[in-house]
Amino acid sequence: MATPRYSLLQRLLHWIIALLVFGLLAMGFTFWGLGFEGVTELFGDQLRDTFYTMHKSFGILLFFLVVLRLLLFRFAPAPAYETPLSGVERVISTTTHVLLYLLMIGIPVGGWLATAISGFPIQFFGWSQPGLDPANKELGEQLFLMHGIGGVVLAALLLLHIGAGLKHWKLKDGIMKRISLP
Known about the structure:
By secondary structure, this protein is mainly α. The chain is built from 4 helices and 2 strands, in the order H-H-E-E-H-H. It has a two-stranded antiparallel sheet with strand order 1-2.
């Protein structure tokens, strides 16, 4: 019997989203850890601006890809499990996935709001929209803090998600085959 799998498009989206999230978290934690001045000192003005622009652009792209993935669930729901999950596993899995999706939508929206409210431009690769004028730097700082805390929570949930994936890969119970590319 063949293992039930997500469609190829859903599997591709899963792994593209995973790469985007890892890259965005790495950049975001660098920004957060070093601060604006530290990033400027380490990389210089031009590279710093490129990194911030790429973080914004890929964050917006992540938002749209996650929305697309959620829309695909409407037309192609998750495949059945080859070996059913226990009740506890199902609760943990469902809760983790819901929180991951909420964060992958909420963090980019929060970053967009923090950026705009702070008066910085909203940038999506070659497209740019000015931030709000007058800016509210204090509110922007609060929103950037929430954006960063969201990133920490997302990273923790990703560790749980990856740990569960490794557990099921070791068990060879068919769960990893559902989302694997080959």
